[in-house]
Amino acid sequence: MVLPSILGSAFVHNYPDTAADIFTIDESFYKFMMDLPSWIPITGMRESSNARDRVKRSMGELHAAISATDRGELLPGGSNGPCDAKLLSEIREEVAPYATSGWAKGVSGAEPSLKLDSAGIRHETPLLQSAMLEAMRLYTLSTSYKYINNDFAVEESEVDKLVRANGGRLATESNTDSLRHSSRSYKLRKGDILCVPLGLQQRDPRYWEDESSFNARRFLIQNNGPHSKQDEPEYSVDYTQTHPWGVGATKCRGIKFSHEEVLNIAVAVLICWDIVPADPAAGWEHPRWLPAGGTAIPKADLRVKLRRRI
Ligand code: HEM
């Protein structure tokens, strides 16, 4: 059984049917892929759907427990970036030359159509890309695992020492004199596995001004300095400050593909749809986040209405 070593023996104790449930889900895998509803009278569908609900619930609780014990923090929500009307119109204007929408003849008459110029989107949309990076900074919680090849020691940095001395918060040097000489060092041994929670850096106030706020322009670099070249674009995007695709030798192998995919999908959604709150009186109430790993998960459903723009 691999489950205890991956998920912990407490998890297996609390949810002893998880392995069986996973096999029950697998039996209806293709039906789920076809998006068939759970009430459809096909043998095994209801059982698989119930098993899927149980696994989703238990995994949610596992994430909550890991986060609470290992990190001791809940994720702040950040501001409501996606409903900034001015930003939305600026991004739509920026991407408009690379997205041609209209009507095309389809099998059942005229159908809405959208053509994307992926290369144009990749090279000419700094604001969209900065906003994408900012969304990834706030809402991805990637973890990088490193296998230690040789013994070595890591010394605590000065700034980490100050933060530790001040109970995990930023501190000035003056109130931490007593800890000046208590530097910690961590010995890493060959064969150990090191876990780097990149999401922590992404929300650390030592690296980010107003770290919980969504600032779509955070990663823009203005290029009109005295040394800028004539044909240089006005803005470029700084991809070096945040690492949602991981770091080092195990860095994501799908960066180029997923980068392009995310940008294209974002452009398609922004061009094709207006998104408004389902309940206009409630407005854009941020549901906050569940503690989770990988990707931030909203605490509650956020119901919206999509209105077609083409
Ligand atoms: C926005 C989408 C994606 C994000 C944020 C993402 C993020 C990550 C992260 C954080 C890692 C671990 C990196 C580390 O250990 O430092 C990883 C690994 C990996 N990703 Fe992605 N990924 C994405 C999409 C994809 C796609 C579309 C593919 C394949 C087509 C892919 C293939 C891989 C592979 C093969 C690894 C393992 C690399 C290794 O261990 O050598 N990823 N990804």
From TrEMBL:
Molecular function GO terms recorded: heme binding; iron ion binding; monooxygenase activity; oxidoreductase activity, acting on paired donors, with incorporation or reduction of molecular oxygen
Gene3D superfamilies: Cytochrome P450
Domain of life: Eukaryota
Pfam families, per database record: p450
Transmembrane residue ranges: none
Protein name per Swiss-Prot or TrEMBL: Cytochrome P450
The organism of origin for this protein: Lophiostoma macrostomum CBS 122681
Lineage: Eukaryota, Fungi, Dikarya, Ascomycota, Pezizomycotina
